[in-house]
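okkk here we go again. third time trying to get the thiamine diphosphate bound version out, last two times i messed up the smiles copy paste (missing a bracket lol). double checked this time i swear
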Amino acid sequence: MNSRTAKKAIGGNSRLLDLHRTMLLIRATETALSKLFADGEIPGFIHLSLGQEAVAAGVCSALGPADTLATTHRGHGHVIARGIDLGGFFKELMGREGGQCKGRSGSMHVADMGLGILGANGIVGASVPLALGSALAHQTRATGGIAVAFFGDGAMAEGALHEALNMAALWSLPMIFVCENNGWSEFSPTARQFRGKLANIAGAFGIRHIHVDGNDAEATADAAREAADHARATGPVVLECMTTRFHGHFEGDPQKYRDSEEMAAMAAGDPVARSRARLIELGMAAADLDAIVSETEARVAAAVEASRADALPDFDATLADVYTPMGAH
Ligand SMILES: Cc1ncc(C[n+]2csc(CCOP(=O)(O)OP(=O)(O)O)c2C)c(N)n1
Ligand SMILES: [Mg+2]
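finally!!
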């Protein structure tokens, strides 16, 4: 079924189909990455966002072309939902010359300025001041854009977040603080490292806090739209999305610290399964949804093959793009 026929089948609910497609692309990409990593085809560490796809799809659905975002070590979903070129993304993660950053950034530093993707980030909480600076630039230059900082619950106890909330409130910056609360920071549950509540921290600075089920793509898209409207019209807002991390902290982490009940409950909350069930309820045929899965997986497989065929960066060019030539300023 082509997308026009599919959209017709579900009438006014085509937005959910778009969100579902985005989530399927993230899932197929990260499922492929999991295997590539296990097979030793990806240099460095990767952290997958399987289970968190609805946050990426929902939040990015509310952004416009002028908007910017900064993300975390678990940022693949965000850049995919923002529309990063898939071929370049796989080349970047596989360390190839044709990647967005010429294979030099890898998973934790993917950036694409053309799409307003300021970068993924290995330092917990560092996406927040980066996006804050971008929000200030939007305001100063009157771009009409907003900046989004994705961060995990692990950043809630960090001073960088608290300082950024203060500055954003003081200057009424057009910014959304998106917390992806998956309940874990590496191998520790949130409760073991944070005594407060994000809503209270936001409230302390007079910033509005929106709480949403981040495994519900439509609810997240609605909440993100509300947050984006608020950021554009009024100033900063915190959007806390409750979600679930399916895989370990990093690929290869056996997750022995999670109990079997929590692992078993994951399937029931799977955001992709939930949107699929909803689309079927709205009248889409399971076979048509399966066809979208197959198309998506084929697209990912082609991107992987193209990456394998791409050259590794030239060793002699290691320092290219690292230093600005003298006299350039
Ligand atoms: C400033 C800083 N402290 C500690 C680390 C080590 N570290 C890497 S990821 C992580 C946990 C992050 O948890 P969270 O922010 O909830 O993100 P999640 O991994 O759950 O997506 C930690 C402590 C780091 N990279 N940077
Ligand atoms: Mg976390």
